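During the no-cost extension, the postdoctoral fellow (Dr. R.K.) reprocessed legacy sequence entries with the updated structure-token encoder. One reprocessed record is reproduced below for audit purposes.
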Amino acid sequence: MKNIKGRFLRKLKTISTQEIMFKEHKNHTHNILTKPEPDPNTVREEGIDHEEMRVQLPMHDVQLSLKVDTQNGPSCEGPESPSEDKCPPGGKHSVVLYTTSLRGIRKTFEDCNTIRFLLESFRVVYSERDVSMHLVYRDELWGVLGGRVVPPRLFIRGRCIGGADEAVGLHEKGMLASLLEGIPLSPSRNPCRGCGGMRFVLCRRCNGSRKVAAAEGVITSVRCHDCNENGLIKCSICS
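Re-encoded structure tokens follow.
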């Protein structure tokens, strides 16, 4: 009987302890769920302001402005305004686009196509200068901008607009159309019948080999002076 009574008392004690622990856990959970929100006045007195804790990132929006010149037409001015001395040869009153037809770097090739598509959508006359087909154009671009610049580079009335990102940005803001006002329109969208839009043809003297006979009846050949380093000459129709 003593053993049975002892086991009964121990079991009763264990049940009472579990009930007390359950009640304490229940009260603690209820206090957490019903905890009131902190008073804003009290929070401010303690030196903590939820509004001040919000991080605000400043928006840096580059604003560009247009100035219309009665002689040279509208020009793009901003924090990085192009200089007048960065004018390519023959580009003071026209549109000049330096591109490359090499597809070794995909992004460069796609950027060239992007600017070309924009200019063709406005149907304006522009001079495209492919640096991969004529090294004179490459040296010309490097000399104007003072460094080994990668195409594309767009010039409008002697001012350097920049690459594809700058041209697309101006177009999205509606400013590219203002910059192109006054530029002659292309009479036709069809490519040139002489070069197919490439602006270069094979040299008729050396047929692209860049070598011609030194004299009649002489086997020795010399460098052809009519074509460039690729054996090409400018198209006589569209250039």
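Residues 42-83 have pLDDT under 50 and may be disordered. Residues 24 and 30 are 10 Å apart (CA to CA). The remaining legacy entries will be reprocessed before the final report is submitted.
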